[in-house]
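Retro notes - structure team

What went well: the batch runner handled both jobs without manual restarts.
What didn't: labels got mixed up in the shared folder, which is why I'm recording both outputs here explicitly, each with its sequence directly above its tokens.

Job 1
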Amino acid sequence: MNNTTDQHYMQRCLSLAQKALGETYPNPMVGAVIVYNNQIIGEGWHQKAGLPHAEVNAINSVSEKSLLSKSKLYVNLEPCSHFGKTPPCVQSIKKYKIPRVIIGSIDPNPKVAGKGIKALQLLGCKVTHGILKKEADFLNRRFFTFHQKKRPYIILKWAQTSDYFIAPAQKKKASVYWITNNLSRQKVHQWRGQEAAILVGVQTIIDDNPELTIRNWEGTDPLRLILDPQNRIPKNSIVYVDEKRTFFFNKENDFKNDDNKKSIKLNPFNLNSFLDYCFNNEIQSIIVEGGKKTLQNFIDANLWDESRVFTSEKKLNSGISSPKLNSRVQGFENFEGDELNLYFN
């Protein structure tokens, strides 16, 4: 089997894995393909934490199990060798005597981190890894950042006018001045559903009274995180009175209203303490949506991984200026006149 063919099947693994974006936290996205005589005879992906892993789903999809002992298994992330919510995937590979396993990324989780490969080799399995490694690492960049940097993967997002303002200086309280169009806003709701959590500062709650949900898209609402050092959040705010999970971070007190609303004291109150809390509570990714001070604090502390900045055709001439990001554009899209620039740190 040549490297080009391996890459072809690994690309299929990545496409399968991508289907579960936003659904597998705190687990990674994994796809698996089983090949016999240059034909795919089975495939699967990990659909949700607690459900079977990709390798097991792929094996189960093979109707003629006797072919497995003469097949190759492709998987974009190293198979696990430890018991979690499900049995280790290495056991299933052993059970069906799959002789070759081709892997994209080595798992950064210390519970795996090469142990899966060693376990397979001890079984006499021939293992190849590093196929489309760059693409496989990028797909699971949230998972890799979480385990390697001990913090969530952080995406900054804002919208600005063509003259670089994110809001007018004065507007009606608790109302939103929309800079972007409906298509761009729908895209943002799709993004929210792909991350574990969404974060804003308290001033955004006071000024806009947002829902911070994915109401314009199908999927799962992210956990809402609010930075509110002085407990200034209005008690009639949507995020305070509705039923959706929301954590409020402050300098003063801890309390828990119910399973959905929690106030958390940070000591000291800073981004590092906040991110430590997120890491310890397995919050693997955060999309930060404002306001300017909150966004700029992440930029100034160099605590960001990705920035997504919409620029509309509107002008304000004055108002609240955009955050300052000194980085090179690495991607571009157009949404009916709204320009989206992508940055990676």
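Job 2
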Amino acid sequence: MSRPARIGLVLGGGGLVGHAWHVGVLAGIAETTGWSACSAALVVGTSAGAVVGAELRCGLHPAELLAPGAGAAPSEVPRPVLGPRSYRPATATMVVRGLRRPRQASLGLVAAGLLPRGRRDAAIITDAVAGLAPGGLPWPPGLWVCATRLHDGERVVLRAGTWSDLGQAVAASCAMAGFFAPVPIAGHDHVDGGARSVTNADVVAGEDLDLVVVSSPMSLGAGGGRRPTGLAARAAHRRRLGHGARLAREVAQVRRQGTPVVVVEPGPDDVAVMGGCGASMDFERRSAVGRQARFTAVHRFTSTPLAEVAAVLASAASPGRPRSASGLAVP
């Protein structure tokens, strides 16, 4: 008898709106297949995805996280920390490196170097994650948190055995350049893991997984829809398409290793609810985004193209009915 399918879960960045997207998507998947993301063999989280990953590993079901105030998502914008405002770039080294190797550096990395160091204390995230387990939170197995080392722009994947403070790691992964103060880990300052890639899906390439589910709130799926009107809307549209192109390269790398991947990303109807780039920290949108994301996931995972994927997830939810995902074709 074959073993139950090992499911990997990649959760991208996206602020408070991205957190709501993840929760809605995962609740919809659970509703249609019976598979709970809490049981994923490996969870890779970036920024908002790192918060959701910590919540899942602490045993919070996605349906629970749909409730207002549940989990570790902040409920208020943190105030600036004390200290003088600076207009100096956070690090010139990363800017120079990005300009010398433009094909390897994302705009996020260059921006993270150019923007001044943020003045808001990321401890609001550290404390919220620690509050998930008041008696003490050891690093849960099967959780990887992606951050960006500030001085050189290198991706750092924090996991059990490499760092022990989960709250600090998640805060580093969420430390948006120019907004939050960088978070020190192992003697180096770190900022948002999304500065390099909003998904970092390629880190699961070559892992012993039968299927990888990617939830990507900041990209745009299914051809991108019509080009919107208005300068700001067009800029946000291009930004989403750029994130989608990078994600496609990462997914191709995972698939070349023989692992099927299914990507859940917003379509035009979802983006209309989520808002533009500046709405990622809009507290008022969270409930509507969660409902919309749940609807989208239910629709997708009950559709014919994803019938086999849904069956694999259902089998993973029912250990008595193991099913291999070998050879699975994912659109």
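One thing worth noting from job 2: Strands lie at 7-11, 42-46, 143-149, 155-158, 183-185, 188-192, 211-215, 261-264.
We'll revisit the folder naming next retro.
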